[in-house]
Each structure stands twice: as structure tokens, then as C-alpha cells.
Write a structure and sequence with these properties.
349 residues; 7-stranded mixed β-sheet; 6-stranded mixed β-sheet; 9 helices; globular; binds zinc ion
Length: 349
């Protein structure tokens, strides 16, 4: 019997009788992080890191939930469970499962660069590692965060000089908080969409020290936005909601902006390849650091990434899951054949 099985409801540990990030209601759910494709409603009991709690409650409502700190050992039916930083968003955790001298680690989503708010990714030794692969192609190699931050700030200054509003498109949980960190020292007012506001409020109430922002409401007159910064989720892009900011420039913050075709497709003025996921090298480094003899690759470019691992002496297999519904993972689904070709060509350069 494997320590973790891949079932129709999600990743299941039969020895402990619990699920990790189940996409159907179950009795016991351990949650890696609060993104909607990893944290579904309807389960009887939840376990998550204490920093995930405010957003989990915001999104799932009144749930029965236990929290754990990093490295704290929780025993469920004789199986030892502990949570370790995944560096993806606030509270995001890798789940370490130990039973009968065997250790498996479920990564959830992860990022190996420290962004200062999501916790520092911790390599955890294990026999079997279950890894995401959102950006598991060699063309995805991120610039250091500081360099991208500088590019965003320079872009805002250029917009200001020409009297324009800067609209930054960023996912409401994770990316939006990083973008705020990036611009908080600038001489601008930060206005946010309601979705970003809700997350901001929940985190502030939980004690997080976040920059001051103002919620965008119809009563705010147009002149107030001039030369200032707007943070809005992708769902607002291209809607009439944006008209009030005119004239404005749109900058999209997403790992997919590494590929030029995506910038054209999004009809954005600027693209910033700022991601909450590990790039190709980050994924490889993370896999190697676990020392795992077997790797299961989930949501993303699982075929390409697991093939590469196999060719390089690490036994790997791809696994189908239901993850990939929120934030950057979603955009992979809309990657067309044309962009796949562009990705392939760019990889050969
Ligand atoms: Zn995520
Ligand atoms: Zn994910």
C-alpha cells in the first residue's frame, strides 16, 4: 500500500485516512494553501498552517479547522504529519508525511526565491516527492525579484510623466501583496479592486503589516486616479470597470509574461514575469534537494518535466489532478498551439 494514493477525490493517505488538497468533500482535509483550486469547501475537518487560516476562512466560511506551525508534528491515526514552508503565498506549506520509516512530501505550489512575505521554501528530505510543474519548461527562468520590481517602478514613473494611470494586473491572493511591497516606497496612492481589498482586509485583521490601500468604489471621481496605481485581478482586465481610469497603461504581472506571445494575446502595454511559482531551475533544484528516489509530477508541464527527470536519472511519473483553477495555473489551459510552438522554439535558442 502506497503512503499516498491518487484518487478521484484527491491525494489520499490510506494509513492515516486523510486527504491533501481534496477537490471533493471528505472527512479530513490537509490544505497546502488557500488558492481556490487547492482549498475546496465541504470537508468535515481541515488542517492548515496558522498563516493560511484568515484566507481559508474568508473563502470557505465557517469551517472546522485546526492549525499547525512550521515543523510541528501532528499525529493522525499513527501517521506523522508536519508542515514546511513552500514560499508560494502567505501560509503555503509542503506536507511531510511519515509512516513505517517512509517519508513522502507533497509540495502543493512552491517558489524557491524568498519574496519576504510567503516564507522561505524549505527543502525537506524524503523518499517520494510529489511536485507541481506549472512552469516546468526550460524557457521559464525568472530574473531576480529585485530586478523585476525595479522594472515595475520604472514603468510607473514613465506613466506618471505622461499623465497616465498605471493599472497592474495581479492575482488577488499572492501576487497583489507582492506588488504592494514593490511600490510601497513610491510617491503614489494605491487603489485596489474589491477582490484584492477583501484579501487585504483579512490579512490586516490577522496582524499582517501591509501598505495602505484604498478600495475602488463608484464614488471616487476620475481625477483621483490620475498618475496613481491600480491593482486589479485578471478578471477585471478588458471589462468596462477599467474605463474610469482612462487614460491608463496596463502592466500584467505573471510568469506567463516570459513568453512574448502572451503579452500580445493579453493586449497589455507591459508584461512583468513575476511569478509565485518556481521556474525550471527552481523545480529541478527543489527536486534534487529532497533526495527523493521517486518523483510524481502534478499540474503544469508534467509530461516534459517528468521526462527530463527520467532522462537524468531521477525516476518520475506524471499524475493527473484537478489543480490549476486559480492564478497562474489557469492560464496554461488557454495556451494555444501557436504559443506552444513559440515556447518550443524559444527553448531551442
Ligand atoms: Zn497556488
Ligand atoms: Zn497549484
Amino acid at each position: 500500500m502506497a503512503l499516498v494514493e491518487f484518487t478521484n477525490s484527491g491525494l489520499y493517505c490510506p494509513s492515516g485516512d486523510f486527504y491533501i488538497d481534496p477537490w471533493k468533500p471528505v472527512n479530513r482535509a490537509i490544505i497546502t494553501h488557500a488558492h481556490s483550486d487547492h482549498a475546496y469547501t465541504g470537508s468535515k475537518y481541515y488542517l492548515c498552517h496558522s498563516a493560511s487560516l484568515p484566507i481559508l476562512k474568508l473563502r470557505l466560511g465557517d469551517i472546522t479547522v485546526q492549525t499547525a506551525e512550521w515543523g510541528e508534528i501532528i499525529n493522525i491515526n499513527g501517521v506523522k504529519i508536519s508542515l514546511h514552508p513552500a514560499g508560494h503565498i502567505i501560509g503555503s506549506s509542503q506536507i511531510r508525511i511519515e509512516h513505517n520509516n517512509e517519508v513522502w512530501v507533497v509540495s502543493g505550489d512552491y517558489k524557491t526565491e524568498n519574496d519576504g512575505i510567503s516564507g522561505m521554501f524549505e527543502p525537506v528530505k524524503c523518499n517520494v516527492f510529489i511536485s507541481e510543474s506549472t512552469f516546468g519548461l526550460p524557457i521559464y527562468n525568472w530574473k531576480p525579484q529585485e530586478e523585476i520590481y525595479r522594472n515595475i517602478r520604472d514603468w510607473i514613473l514613465v506613466n506618471q510623466a505622461s499623465g497616465k494611470t498605471s493599472v497592474l494586473i495581479a492575482y488577488s491572493l499572492g501576487k497583489a501583496q507582492r506588488v504592494m511591497q514593490c511600490i510601497k516606497e513610491m510617491n503614489v496612492k494605491i487603489f485596489v479592486h474589491g477582490a484584492v481589498w477583501n484579501v487585504h482586509q483579512a490579512l490586516q485583521q490577522a496582524g499582517y503589516d501591509l501598505p495602505v490601500v484604498e478600495r475602488i468604489i463608484p464614488e471616487i471621481s476620475k481625477e483621483n486616479f490620475k498618475e496613481q496605481v491600480i491593482i486589479a485581478p485578471p478578471s477585471a482586465d478588458g471589462t468596462t470597470w477599467m474605463k474610469r481610469f482612462s487614460s491608463y497603461s496596463i502592466g500584467v504581472c505573471s510568469g506567463w509574461m516570459q513568453v512574448r506571445g502572451n503579452l500580445r494575446r493579453r493586449n497589455a502595454d507591459a508584461g512583468f514575469a513575476l511569478s509565485d511559482h518556481a521556474d525550471w531551475k527552481g523545480l529541478l533544484d527543489a527536486v534534487k534537494a529532497t533526495g527523493a528516489g521517486k518523483v510524481f509530477v502534478t499540474h503544469g508541464f508534467q509530461a516534459a518535466f517528468s521526462r527530463y527527470l527520467n532522462e537524468n536519472g531521477i525516476e518520475a511519473a506524471e499524475v493527473k489532478t484537478e489543480y490549476g483553477g486559480e492564478e497562474e495555473e489557469q492560464e496554461k489551459a488557454s495556451t494555444t498551439k501557436e504559443q506552444e510552438d513559440e515556447i518550443n522554439t524559444a527553448g531551442e535558442e
